[in-house]
Every structure is written in C-alpha cells, then in structure tokens.
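Go through this chain for my students:
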Amino acid sequence: MAEYVKIYPENPNPKAIQKVVDVLQKGGLVIYPTDTVYGLGCDITNIKALERIAKIKGVKLEKSNFSFVCEDLSNLSDYVKQIDTTTFKILKRALPGAYTFILPGSKNLPNPFKKRKTVGIRVPDNSIALALVSALGHPIVSTSIRDEDDIIEYTTDPELIHEKWDNLVDIVIDGGYGGNEASTIIDLSENPPVILREGKGSLEIF
C-alpha cells in the first residue's frame, strides 16, 4: 500500500520531504510531481530500487532510458563527460526547465548504466522535485508515468495516480495537478543538437 503524502509546492514542508527521502534511501519507489508530468523515481545508488522500476516498466535495466533528475548542474561532472562551452550555455539557459538533455556519459555512471554512451539529464522547474534531490544528496533516477489510455496518455490527478499505483510504489506525493505534456528531449551529444521529442520546453533556447 502506497502512502499518500500531500506537499504544497509553494513551500515544501521539510519534514514531509525528509519522510519521502527516508523511503528513497531504503530502496522505496516514489511518484512525485515535476514541471511536466508526474514521475516515478528512486535513489540512483540503490540497485534493487532501479531493478523494481525497470520491472514495472517492462524493460531491462541496462537498456532503459531513465533520466537522472538533478538539483542543478553541479552533478553533471559525476555522470557526464566534459562538455564544451556552447553546450553548457544551452544548459544554463534552459535549466531548471521542462527539458531532458541527452549528454555523453562518463566512466563514473552507476554500475547498471556503465555501458551507456549517453545519459538523460533533467533539472525540473518544480520546488518539490528539487527539494527531494537536494535532501537526498544525489540524483533520482526517473521515468514518466504513462497511462494505457492513448487519449489520456498521462494521468494528472494525484488521487487517481495513487489509486492506480497503490500496490506498485511506496509513496505517492500529491503536489497538485500534474501536466499532461512531457519534457522536450534534446540530444546534445550530437553536433548540431538533435530534437528527439518536442514537448513542453520551448525550442527558443537555441
């Protein structure tokens, strides 16, 4: 049974944030709000939690396309090869924001992702998501929660999300209604950059 935790985005309660972080540190799965759609996430350092998410999504962990949700760009050097000034300027302009940037992965990636050549980085413009990552002290590995219904694609009501995911995750955060448009995905490992998916993030950052 997933616990339902209400957190207000205007001023995320530190005690509520810490409660969620404690669950993440114990290998729990959490559904949380972002600046786009609600995400399913876990602690990047917990292999068992990563395997749980991969199983839910029906993918092999090594071949998954999960994003690393970071608090800011200071985490980049941990997971990404050195990037040029032009790429860094794009990231500075766009983040925090509704983008997933594909960047060249470094040798320091966590074990399940060691063979990856690239990694998806997110810094969402959402106070709850950023407070979680900040309190956790390292990124959350994350994926969007999609709906089987092709018309509704993403569930936006936290109560309905809780109902649906009750037996699959440990906590569902109610941070208000979510969006129904995913992030814009831009591959910056290529030159010039390649737009892989146009979503909520504007392309005017270029």
User: Anything to note?
Assistant: Residues 14-25 form the longest helix (12 residues). The chain is about 25% helix and 20% strand. Strands lie at 3-6, 30-32, 39-43, 67-69, 99-104, 118-122, 140-144, 171-174, 184-187, 194-197. The mean pLDDT is 94.
